[in-house]
Structure formats: structure tokens, C-alpha cells
Write a structure and sequence with these properties.
alpha+beta; Arc Repressor Mutant, subunit A; globular; disordered N terminus
């Protein structure tokens, strides 16, 4: 019984840390909601249309990428090259829940 209890506490701490990553980088939540609405968007559009600052956008995008929430690819067919950002399957599932919460607010 004690072993199961410790395992439960251990799993809770891991989950708590993942949620903490989203809290620390609040830009991630905004990025996920935007990508849920737009599908795929380039980095410059985040700045121009949604007025996100590059110095907060870069770390949020990197952290979302590290968490496997977004995929970043370089579009080489255009000049200048564009950094295209889209949700991964995992990111899409999370963005769906965040969008629902956003709509309720």
C-alpha cells in the first residue's frame, strides 16, 4: 500500500511540473490558442497581427517546442525564408482544452 501511495505522489509531482512550465511561460498558452484558430502561422505574423514581442515570443516558442506542443519548420520556397509554426497532435489536444477555457472566460 505504501509503495502505491509513493508512486501516486511521484506522478503528481511530474504532472505539477509540466503545468508549471505552462504557467512560467504564459506566452505558450496564447500561442496555442492562436495556432488552434489559424492552423499554421509564420513567426512574423505572431508579431505583426497578434502584437507579441519577439523577446517573449522566442522563449515561449522554444519551450512549446521542447514540450512537443508545436512544430517549427523553415519554408525555403519563399524569400526571405519563413519560420512556419503549427500545433503537434499533442499541442492540438491541449489547445482544444485551453480554447474551451478561454471561451468560458
Amino acid at each position: 500500500m505504501k509503495f502505491i501511495f509513493n508512486l501516486h505522489i511521484h506522478n503528481y509531482k511530474i504532472m505539477e511540473l509540466k503545468i508549471e512550465a505552462l504557467e512560467k511561460n504564459s506566452g505558450i498558452l496564447r500561442i496555442l490558442v492562436i495556432l488552434k484558430k489559424t492552423g499554421e502561422i509564420n513567426f512574423q505574423q505572431f508579431i505583426d497581427i497578434y502584437h507579441l514581442y519577439p523577446n517573449s515570443l522566442y522563449p515561449a516558442i522554444q519551450r512549446a517546442k521542447d514540450l512537443d506542443l508545436i512544430d517549427v519548420r523553415i519554408e525555403t520556397s519563399s524569400r526571405p525564408r519563413k519560420k512556419m509554426i503549427r500545433l503537434t497532435e499533442k499541442g492540438d489536444k491541449i489547445a482544444e482544452y485551453i480554447s474551451r477555457v478561454n471561451d468560458l472566460l
